[in-house]
Design brief:
367 residues, binds magnesium ion, single chain, alpha/beta, Enolase-like, domain 1, binds 2-succinylbenzoate, seven-stranded parallel beta sheet, 2 domains, TIM Barrel
């Protein structure tokens, strides 16, 4: 596909309620919408970089810089055949996975539109709907957290993930478990602990959790291996797995029993599928993580989560969990069986609401 021009929209969208993790609190969510024009078609991709370098080192600012000054010049005017061809084009750029992944998503959208196939079909997904759960941020109190969890359970979410940090961990998780003895429950620390202070998490082992997500440093794999040896509950890695190579390291080191797949963190959907396949070979379950995506990224997450080894429920909630107004005309809703339906249209299967896009745009660059 000949890449004729690209637009980058730096967006800021109000969240329906603040989202707090061990690394900070967001009331508005920033990201970059990538629009690629090619042979009469338009492809969209979402770069899930955040305003602050809290989840990883990338931000919407670094992403705009890398996208405009380094990635765009490598593909503009070129004939990019597919995702792997694109990965070859940008292989000289170290890191910046979130920026690369946003462009790869737009290329998949174009490929699907050209071939009249959905992203799910292109990736080899088999499910028409995906089982989902909700991710709940840190609340002002354990009682507040229980109320929030109760609200989501009532809406029909059959799995809940709660964010933890030192001082807000065992007590919070125990309070939710006490109220919901049979709820599928998991926790996410976003790298807030050291191996030494993770000792205090030991009581979590008695709460029948599905998994403990990313307790230790974002660039660590080895200490997670040591921690996994001391816990019955599966450790799940998120931040630490930034490529299929890292997934192999984690598997070989027994650093975790589950991997969270985010195409963004891995540098693209193609890399996400590779991690999926690698884990499937060794019978390690995976699940699809989220980054508070707009309808664009949400469609992409649903497509990849339809692959067979996505065994645990995804962090893909309904659109209204985060946004009163979204940039897509399509909104995702929760089905009564705690699933969300994977889009069927060509490519991502979503269209852009230009008025909403305008409303949320902080800056726009066209190359
Ligand atoms: O660690 O999974 C994470 C959101 C922003 C950054 C990191 C994470 C998250 C979430 C939200 O947990 C998942 C969602 O999109 O609902
Ligand atoms: Mg996580």
């Amino acid at each position: 596909m000949k890449i004729e021009s690209i637009t980058f929209h730096h967006l800021s969208m109000p969240l329906v309620s603040p989202f707090e993790t061990s690394f900070g609190r967001e009331t508005d969510r920033e990201c970059v919408l990538i629009t690629i024009y090619s042979e009469g078609l338009v492809g969209y991709g979402e770069c899930v970089a955040t305003r602050d370098p809290g989840y990883n080192y990338e931000t919407t600012g670094t992403a705009m810089h890398i996208l405009r000054d380094f990635i765009a010049p490598l593909i503009l005017g070129k004939d990019v055949k597919d995702a792997l061809d694109f990965q070859g084009c940008v292989s000289g750029i170290r890191g910046h996975q979130l920026a690369k992944a946003g462009v790869e998503m737009a290329l998949w959208d174009l490929l699907g539109k050209r071939e009249g196939k959905s992203l799910r079909q292109l990736l080899g997904g088999m499910r028409e709907k995906v089982e989902v759960g909700v991710s709940i941020g840190i609340q002002s109190s354990a009682q507040g957290l229980v109320r929030s969890a109760a609200d989501y359970v009532k809406q029909g979410y059959a799995r809940v993930k709660i964010k933890i940090k030192p001082g807000r961990d065992v007590e919070d998780a125990s309070a939710v478990r006490k109220e919901f003895p049979n709820l599928r429950l998991q926790v996410d620390a976003n790298s807030a602990y050291t191996l030494d202070d993770a000792k205090i998490l030991k009581p979590l082992d008695k709460l029948n959790l599905l998994l403990i997500e990313q307790p230790l440093f974002e660039d660590d794999i080895w200490d997670h291996h040591k921690l996994q040896e001391r816990f019955e509950t599966p450790i799940c890695l998120d931040e630490s797995i930034v490529s299929p190579r890292h997934a192999r390291y984690a598997i070989e080191m027994n650093a975790c029993r589950i991997i969270n797949i985010k195409a963004g963190r891995l540098g693209g959907l193609s890399q996400g599928v590779m991690v999926h396949d690698l884990c499937q070979k060794v019978s390690m379950p995976v699940w699809c993580g989220g980054m508070l995506e707009t309808g664009v990224g949400r469609a992409s997450n649903l497509a990849i989560a339809s692959l067979p080894n996505f065994i645990l429920p995804a962090d893909i909630s309904a659109s209204d969990r985060y946004y009163a107004r979204d940039i897509t005309n399509e909104r995702f809703v929760l089905n009564s069986d705690s699933t969300i339906t994977v889009p069927n249209g060509a490519g991502l299967g979503v269209t852009i609401n230009e008025d909403a896009l305008k409303e949320f745009t902080l800056a726009e660059i066209k190359v």
